[in-house]
Amino acid sequence: MVRRTRNAARDAEEGIKDYIRAHGLRTGDMLPSEAVLCEELGCSRSSLREAVRTLSSLDIVEVRHGHGTFVSDMSLAPLLRGLVLRITLDSDHSLANLNHVIDTREALDRSVGDELARIYEGQPVDHLHRIVQAMRDRNNAGESFAQEDHRFHATLLEPLGNPLIKEISEALWKVHMQVLPLLDLSMPEDIKLTIESHADMIDALVADDPALYREVVTRHYEPLRRLVSAAAARHGR
Fold first, then answer.
1. 2-71: CATH topology
2. What is the DSSP string of 181-214?
3. Over 80: is that where the pLDDT of 5 sits?
C-alpha cells in the first residue's frame, strides 16, 4: 500500500511537470487548483499534495499559503543544500570534498577568461575597483568581506552570455562559504593576497590578457588551498 502511494505521488510529480511544460508556464505563473489538477492528472489529493511538497523542496514550485501554487524560479538551491551535506557528512573526507569545490570554482573561473577579456577590454571598471576597495576596508577593520566578495564575483560575471555559468558560480560560492564554518575553518592568514588578486583580475581583463587572468585566478585560490592543506595535515588526512 505504501509503495503504491509513493508510486502515485511520483506519477503526480511527473504529471505536474508535464502540465507546466505542456501549458508553457513560466516562473511566477499560477498552477490550477487542487481539484482541477487532480482531475487533469487523474490522481488523489493526497498524492498531489505529496508531489507538490517534493517539487517545492526542489524549487520547481512555490506554495503561497492562501494564494495558491506557483511555478518557482527553479534555482540551484537544492544543489547547494545537497553539496553542503555531501561535503560535511563524511568527516574523514570533508576537506578533500571542499578541495573538489575549490577545484571546480577555479576551473569555472578560468574557463570564462577569453570571453571576459573580450567584454572588459578597455572598458571602465571603476565599479569593480570600488568593490575591491570595500573588501580592503572591511578586512582592515577586522570584519568579514564575504558580502563584498560575493558582489565582486557576481558583478564580474554579469555580462556573460551563459546564465547557467553565473548560477553555478554563485551556487558554488555559497557552498564554499557555508562549508568553511561547518568545518571550523577561519579565513586564511594571508587573505590579503586573495583580496589583491581581485584587483589583478580586473587589470588583466582590461588589458585583454586572458592568460594572465587565468594565472591570477589560480593565485586567488592559493591562500584557501593552503588553509585546507594545513587543516588536513593537523587531522592527518
1. Arc Repressor Mutant, subunit A (1.10.10)
2. HHTT----TTHHHHHHHHHHHHHHHHTT-HHHHH
3. no
Give the Cα separation of 49 and 41 in Å (integer).
Answer: 13
**Whether pLDDT at 237 is above 70:** no
Cα distance between residue 57 and residue 82, in whole Å: 11
Place of cell 487548483: 33
d(CA 42, CA 114): 51
Contact present, 84 and 173 (Cβ < 8 Å) = no
Distance CA 91, CA 81 (A): 17
The residue behind cell 513560466 is 26
Extents of the domains making up the chain: 2-71, 77-234
Read off the pLDDT of residues 148-169 as tens digits, 9 standing for 90 and up: 999 999 999 999 999 999 999 9
The contacts of residue 90 (CB under 8 Å, 6+ apart) are 97
| CATH class entry, domain 77-234 | mainly alpha
Per DSSP, the residues of 84-120 read HHHHHH-TTTHHHHHHHHHHHHHHHHHHTHHHHHHHH
Contacts of 195 (CB under 8 A, 6+ apart): 132, 135, 136, 139, 145
Q: Let me know if the fold of 2-71 is the same as that of 77-234.
A: no
Instruction: Put residue 74 in one of left, alpha, beta given phi > 0 → left and psi -120 to 50 → alpha.
Output: left
Nearest to 108 by CA among 173, 155, 187: 173
Q: Give the predicted TM-score (pTM) of the model.
A: 0.78
